[in-house]
Design goal:
The protein has helices at 5-12, 43-48, 57-60, 112-122, 134-138, 207-217, 224-231, 306-313; strands at residues 71-74, 77-81, 96-100, 103-106, 156-160, 176-180, 259-260, 264-265, 295-301, 319-320, 338-342, 361-365, 373-374, 378-379. A 4-stranded mixed β-sheet has the order 12-11-9-13. It has a single domain, classed as paralog of FGE (formylglycine-generating enzyme), CATH 3.90.1580. With 389 residues, the protein is of the alpha+beta class. A hairpin with a 3-residue loop joins β7 (259-260) and β8. 47% of the residues are buried. It contains 8 helices and 14 strands. It binds calcium ion. The site of calcium ion has 8 residues, from loops.
Amino acid sequence: MSCLLPALLIVLQSAAPAPAAPAPAAPAPAATPECCAAPSRFAHLVQAAAATQPVAPEATGLAAALGPAGMRWIEGGTYQRGSEFPDARLEERPVHAVRVDGFFMDVTEVTNAQFRAFVEATGYVTTAERVPTLEEIMKQVPPGTPPPPAEALVAGSLVFTPPPQPVPLHNPAAWWRWVPGADWRHPQGPGSSIDGMDDYPVVHVSWYDAAAYAEWSGKRLPTEAEWEYAARGGLVGKHYGWGDAPYSEESPQANIWQGRFPNANSGKDGYVGLAPVKSFPPNGLGLYDLSGNAWEWTADWYRPDTYVRQLRASEGGVLVNPRGPERSYNPREPLAPSRATRGGSFLCHDSYCSAYRPSARQGTAVDTSLSHTSFRCVVSKEQATKVRK
Ligand SMILES: [Ca+2]
């Protein structure tokens, strides 16, 4: 079970043989060194071409008041997905035209109060609250890896734990800690609680948990194409969801990290961790926290070469309502099925990943839950009447 992988790998990596990873179908994505990268000189034209700016809901006659509570209508259209800005990773490239139908989207990440209503109505138990089996774990570690000790088979989740001093940024295990007893109601582990945090994003939810909530609520998780279209906020070819202006510590546009990642967060934006939803300005479509605060699960399986493969299949034409691949491939964890997560979190910092950009994407193992990962839902116009009140 990959939610255990960071902890398990710490325990087991000295004894494990080299991973027998399948050969990737495309180069593994890697951060482009900022010192030597530059956009192609026509990148800005590519980004602007053939894009249809989404129309504000009020202008369509489908005012938000006609949709489900807490959702906004996002008019369908064509946009340029991906990024060729210098800080775009390979998995965000190339920029290409995508058309999506209109949909309603949750204005905010799903909150603790909303998730509690689901749990109370259904008795649902999240992945982090269940004891993993040895079989689940061994499926996701390289053959020959010794089984973990019995005491490792406990329910828990991954909690961001800042190290006391600066650390190299290539090893997330330096700031992620496996905490037995951590779950959505105990975000820092036993003894912690979400009292007074009803309007915070629910975290420590696996993809399965997010999908179960979505089904119960009569909604669904967004595709990557829908998510990015919404996160662009109606802007065309912009670096961030709010435009091209760099992140401002004086007037923060999103809940990300200030200071030296991962050991020293100044909290200058008012938060060193999660913030209540709607604490930062909405984007141009009236949607909050699509940049930062908490990562968000999508419906799509993750591959770093998703765009290349889809463009090859479409022979370069506009991709219409694209879905993810049939199976995932995540070079960072080749044995763990992964779905795409989007939006970055309170941990984002330009020195590390700048993943609060609308084009940024990563794969997260479907059974993994973390203290910085949440979700929001969408629903089509046809299904909107079935949304649970
Ligand atoms: Ca978010």
